[in-house]
Model the fold of this input.
Amino acid sequence: MNPYTTLIPLTVLCGTLSAAPQAPVHDSFTPGQIWMDNNGVHINAHGGGILHNHGTYYWYGEHKIEGDAGNYAQVGVHCYSSKDLYNWKDEGVVLKVAENDDKSPIAKGCILERPKVVYNSKTGKYVMWFHLELKGRGYGAAYAGVAVADKPTGPFTFLRAGRVNAGQWPADMPKEKRTVAIEGGVPKLTSSSYPADADPDAFFKRDFPGGQMSRDMTIFVDGDGKAYHIYSSEENGTMHIAQLTDDYTAHNGRFVRAFPGRYMEAPAIFKHEGKYYFIGSGCSGWAPNAARSAVADNIEGPWKELGNPCSGPRADKTFGGQSTYILPVQGKPGTYIFMADIWKPQNAIDGRYMWLPIRFADGKPKIEWQDRWQLP
Ligand code: DGJ
Done:
């Protein structure tokens, strides 16, 4: 049985011709297992995020295909809807890559990762942000892309993509440090640590005129309606937390740099009892590493690292997953779901979802493995 693309009617499996095919009915989360949608097909929404809108949850993620070519965007962003978070209805591909147009920034074969959708009540539009890499350029472009729709189920129209906040100084950079002169020149690239003797702001200064790099990302909308784009920048060495404009479709120029030189990816942010919590990962490609967590009184920091939120066997590898989003469950204050991907780079479509509950102990978020669990 191929759970990725094909529905085998239950009638066939049961040897009867009478009943119509039934979708599997889930009443719990089973992290790491195949997760069937209403058509009996493994959900295809990797690196995803959730929008809650008028009593329905919408799950948006990367549509992957079979094999390692599946790590490139061949289709677009897939959407599913649910009322209970266990059972998901396929709503189709809501942002399509551009077929037969290699000049489009979202040409088929580009890299389009970690889409996140938010609703803007001022414009009544649904706004999708995503990490975009131009076709044929590996991870060199480091662009943020944006698309809008009139309905949560799309279709989303691509607006633009590019580097972020060109020519803007971070709000947390003292005036006397605001120079693009790089002491000792731009250091050699490294994927996991910043050379001790290099100018700590070298990559930021290098990219000041043309715009800052934007890779792994999330969007967080605060209680006052302000939206923030949080992304791995400066060769993944430092996170940026950047405000969006009131319509959420652009950056307004205000941003701060967080976790300088800590090389973090997979950012996810949530707010609990007035404090902001961050969960992310280190940088090791598709291979899992230990999650990181942090807390702040203000989303712009200062952030205090709280260490690995995971505990128990394989906590040092986030149980094989990597964060993508933290979902506050509606109507259940204090209930949050840690959403993570178990990547399968050799067969991208087989990537699994690992949703686990977050609990708090000593003011820190805690995540433990569960084979199966239900919402409280
Ligand atoms: C890890 C990132 O978190 C993913 O989004 C993806 O970019 C992979 N690296 C690619 O290696």
About this structure: Residues 6-19 have pLDDT under 50 and may be disordered. The two ends are 33 Å apart (CA to CA). The domain at 42-166+198-368 is CATH 2.115.10.20 (Tachylectin-2; Chain A).
